[in-house]
Every structure is written in C-alpha cells, then in structure tokens.
Amino acid sequence: CVLCGRTDDCPEKYGEKRTYVEYNLTVHYYCLLMSSGIWQRGEEDEGVDGFLITDIRKEVKRAAKLKCNICKKKGASIGCVAPKCKRSYHFPCGLQRECIFQFMEDFRSYCWEHRPVQEFMDKEPRGASQCTICLDLVEHLPVYTVLKSPCCKNAWFHRECLQYQALSAGIFFFRCTVCNNKDKFQKEMLRMGIHIPERDASWELEENAYQDLLHCYQHCDVKRCLCKKGRDYNEPDSKWEIQRCQYCGSRGTHLACSSLKSWEQNWECMECRSIFAKSGKYSKRKKRTLAASENSNGTPCLLEEPPPKSPRQSSGSPRSFLLQSPKMMCQNLSPCSQLEQPASNRVTVSPSPVMSNWNWSLRHKYLRQQRKEVCNILKELKVQIQTKTTRLNINAENIWSSALKGFRQRIFSPTNTIEVNFSNCKNRSKTNTSSASKHHFFQVIMLHLQNSSLFEGSFGKNLSLDFQALKENLYFEVGKMIAVSLVHGGPPPGFFSKTLFKCLVYGPENVKPALEDVADVDVAQTIKTIKCANSLSSLQSALQDCCEFLTAAGCLRPVTALCDKNMLVNDILIYHVIKRITLPLESFRQGLKTLGVLEKMQTHPDVFSSIFCYKPERLSAETVYNLFTIHSSSDVNKVEGADFWMGYLQDVESGDSVVTLEDILLFVTGSSYIPAIGFDPEPTIKFLHIRYPIGNRLLNCLELPRTKTYQQFKNKMELTIRNT
C-alpha cells in the first residue's frame, strides 16, 4: 500500500486492497478514506471510488514528509483532529495503538490520548457478562476492546465482534442484539469507531439464499403411511394430498392417512399436540380454531385466525381516513371518482354538475389548507439549516450524475446551506448569485425521479424493483434528495401513490394494496382473470395458466371453492406491490429520515399526503396575487397601480399576454413554482416612480412602475419580463 507501506490483504481490518497496474499503484481503501489531506473530487467511477490518481500521488508526497509516532517510519498520512495534537500515524499502526477512526461525516481520527470514551456510571456492576454476539465472557471495563450498548444497561460487546457484525449486517440490519434499537445504537458505534458499510446485509446479497423457503414441506410423518407410492407422494385435490401441521408446518400427513375428508380440516402433529396437552390449552385452542374457520353463514372459510391488528382508530381519525383503499380516497376527494367505479355502482349515483363543482372546490380548499400546514412544519425543520454553505457543482449536460456525486461527497451535509453552480460541458462556470440555480436544480431532479426506473406506474407511482439501483444504494440517495428538497426550498414530489405513501408512514405490514397499484400489464391481467372467474373450473384453469408466476410469488395453493379467489388475489397484490420491494422500501425510508422529514410525515400523515400524492396546484391569478404583500402606508385597495397589477394577472391567466404566471414568479423569485416550504423572505411588491419593473431575487421583491394607464403598465411588464 502506497500510504501505509504494508502488504497485508485483510479487508475486515484495512478495507479492500486494490492494485492499479496502469498507474503502478496499490492502496488499502481505509488508508485512503482516513488520510487527512485528500478529498473525493471525482465521479464514483473515476480513480479509486472518486479519489483521483493525481490527488492520491499528492497525498503520498505529503505523507512522505511526516513520521509515524508509533512505528517511527515516514508516510504517516493520518493525523489526530484534537486541537494542538500533532501526532501522525499510519492506519494499521493506529489500529494497533488503539486509535479511533470515525467512518462518518468528516472521517475524523483520534489518537490514543484524545480518543472518545464511553461514560460509565459509578453504580454499574464491575463484573463480567456474555458478549451477545460470540457468547464469550466480556469484562465490564472502560477499555478500548470493550463496548457498551447505549440503549441496554446489561449489553456488553467485544469491539472485534461488533466490527464483524457491522460488516456483515450493513447499515440496514446492524442494530442492538438485545433490544433491536437501530438509530441510537448505530450513532454510538460510529462515534466509537465501528465501520458500518452503506450496503445491504451480506446474506441478502447472496444469490438464491432463500430459495429453500419457497419449497413447502411435502412428507407424510404418521406412523403408518397408507400410500403405496411412498411418503413423499403428493397429489393435490385427492386423498393423497399432503396436509401440514397447522401450528408448526414442519410435519405432514396424507389426508387418507389421518382420515381427513378435505384439506380444509385442521391437523396437528404429535409434537404440537403433546405441547398443548401439557400446557392444558389444547382443547381451548382447538375450539377457537374451529370457530375461526366458520363465517357468519356457517360455511367453511379458508382464512386462518387473523393476526393481531394495530390499535383501533376512531372513525374520524386521520389514520383511518388515510388507510382507506385508493378508490375510497378518490371517491372522497375527486368529483371524477364516479367514473372509476364499476358500472353497477355508477348508475346509482349521478351528482349534478353544480354538486360536482362544489366537491371540486371543496377538494382544492382542503388541499390548500393542508399545504399551508406542511409549509409551517417544514419551516420548523429548516431551523436545523446552518449558515455554512456546501456548493454543488452541477454539469448542465448531466445533472443527475452530478447531483448524485454531490450528495455522496464526504463534505456534503444536509444541514448546510446549499449553493448550486451550473457549468456547461467545458466546465466553464456561470456565476449566479440568486437562488434561481437551486430552484431549477431541485425542479429538474424531481422531474428526473418521477420518470426514472426507480418508480413505476402512470400517475400515482410505487417503488419498482431495480437490482442495480439497490446495489448502488440509489433508493437511499433518492429518499435523501426528496427530504433535502423539501427543507431547502425545492418542489414536493406530488407523484406518490396512496399505497406507497401509507407504506412509508404506517409500515408495509399495515397497508392493503389495490389492483390500480400494479404497473406490470401482464401481472395486472393475470389478477383480473383470477378476480373475474365466475366458476370453479374457470378459476382452476386461470391458475394453471399462471402456475409459474404463482409459484415464484409463493401464492400457489389448491382451490376448492370460488370464494378462494379473493384471498388469492389479495396475496398476489401484497407480494407484487409490497413484499417484492421490501429492500428498496426500507432503503428509501432511511433516506427520507434525513433532516427529520419521515418523522414529521408519520406525525402528520394527512397533511403530508397533500404534497406527496397530489400535484401542486396550478398557478392562478388569485394565487399569485395572494402570494405577494403590497408594501404601502395607505390602504392596499387605494394604492395607485394595485388594480393594474390584479388586472394584468387576470390577463396573463386568460392568455391575453405573451408571458405566463410562471414567468412572473421566475422574474421575481428565481423559481417558476411555489416551494412546499414557501419563499424566504416572503414576496413583496412596491409601487415606485421608476421606468421599468425590477425583480429583486435576493429579497423576493417586485418593484413596479406607477403609470397613468393600464396599457402602459402592461406594455412595460411584458417588455421587461419577456426580455429577461
């Protein structure tokens, strides 16, 4: 390694060791990451993960002048960040001397004297307990090799065990092994020098790792099997069909071998029966199962006893309002919803045009009120933003790649004020002191996301399953970008489906998807065929046609009644819309946690649905007029020119102008849309004795000329805005 001088190849300790023959260069990834004088200035595919080769050589040259305080050799590229501490060392030497390297934020390093330590209470017992990872004893001592859980009093770990666990579990699954806490635990472990890689767990990346789980248990375990073809023989819809134990599922019997008349009858293996018999709960448990297997009409029902539900909500609560099916939501909010109902339902309800317009007006009024509340909530989150700036250099010809690089750079912090600098393909920067670049940047990013392969669907979009994006952690980055956009004055998404929004807010286990959520035409057609089957034979024929798909989805099962199709359709929808995208959804949720956005969404779900699931309201003359505050010492209605301003907006809205309302907004604020968080400062208007209008984007102030006639006012407005 050109930085530490060692030949060791130990990815767990020093990171991946890479050799570049064309550059005559070998380097450990951690040595490079922790070096004090180098930054990621290139694209991810440039140099070594964004570290340019020229920069690496400069760092090697700089380190060659520094002597390691541990091994006394030259090439110490890492320095302690403590004030006034001048110790330098190699990465492997630092590990041996028990220095701490923080793999987060600015990638700080602390020497053995200034390293962070965990606080130990005097009352805590000084003994030994089991490390919950390796199960060996670990002493309760404030030493480097021992770490204490921040969330559990009696959880102690070996540092080495925790590091191996973190490398294996990745950022999504690394958590306290006792209480399962994730956020608090990860924060403390990062502080104490545990490296948590931003990737999925190693067991999730293994190909066909869970293939065995798709196979059902198929073996007859009774003492005397009557089947002549053997215990493994299974013939569906016959007496030789294998029925599994209703409790453990790991034992089976042929229907004939246990005198079962149909597969709908419950069967328990001897092991489970003996357990219930010893506990005295067998008879009660059996009665409850039988009761659950019958519906109100006394006919057998294939549904098992339902799992425990979330706490019951009152009928008027926001949660119950949002947990309705997408059709119900549309019925409540949209006058066009009658067209989405079946024909039989559509005939019974025929609202008058007056009633439809009234419902439409109510819907817009409701959404407008919700967006005002979102604006106030986002302003609370904006308090976190500091005056320190982070500049994003964006190539105008490849905005998405530039944005991804900017968000992934080590110096990027969502709490810093963001400045966007656009450059052309020749990298010639265009200086722009206004916020127009930032507004345009977030607008383009949001448009790109809406049309990207990460989402699927025509209008209300759900997450898609893109393995390459999952491998590159793009779902996390997209969630972070949306959160940053909302708090930093960008546009809201406005294209989420109700189902995706509910999965983010309530968790996927509490959401019931609908057929409208299926974007794949073939899958949607398969579900429709099953749903529309009007006889048992047509249902079985439909299942035979899509047998491979049902097997892959884990939904293939025997059907003996037409009513089985409802449960089957529900299982297919849950698999295709929710279970299939579990990993992308979890990664996306983690990204949305940036700046506390997801937490606010979960606290105010009905409010945030107005900006995530609905397109922003189209600009109108009234909206723009109400957006601006007219500065005047006298009554606004008596201000000379105020009526000209309102008349001009109405002309623009009706199309009697060469400019648009978006042009006017862009002229004043640098943005062609109203951000979810609103404008800061709020837009104002001044009527002055000037020749032409002036748009002050720093103050969001529109200075308008006083004119004698409306036509003069209109001519000056159009000439100035059009030329600008």
UniProtKB/TrEMBL annotation:
Keyword annotations of the record: Ligase, Metal-binding, Nucleus, Transferase, Ubl conjugation pathway, Zinc, Zinc-finger
UniProt-annotated stretches for the region Disordered: 288-319
Subcellular location: Nucleus
Pfam families the record matches: HECT, PHD_G2E3, zf-HC5HC2H
Ranges for domain HECT: 664-724
Primary residence: nucleus
CDD domains, per the entry: ePHD_PHF7_G2E3_like, PHD_PHF7_G2E3_like
PROSITE patterns listed in its UniProt record: EPHD, HECT
Stored InterPro entries: EPHD (IPR034732), HECT_dom (IPR000569), Hect_E3_ubiquitin_ligase (IPR035983), PHD-type_Zinc_Finger (IPR051188), PHD_PHF7/G2E3-like (IPR059102), PHF7/G2E3_ePHD (IPR042013), Znf_FYVE_PHD (IPR011011), Znf_PHD (IPR001965)
GO cellular component: nucleus
Pathway field: Protein modification; protein ubiquitination
GO MF term (any one): ubiquitin-protein transferase activity
Lyase recorded as keyword: no
Domain PHD-type: 1-115
Protein name in UniProt: G2E3 ligase
Organism whose genome encodes this protein: Cardinalis cardinalis
Upper taxonomic lineage: Eukaryota, Metazoa, Chordata, Craniata, Vertebrata
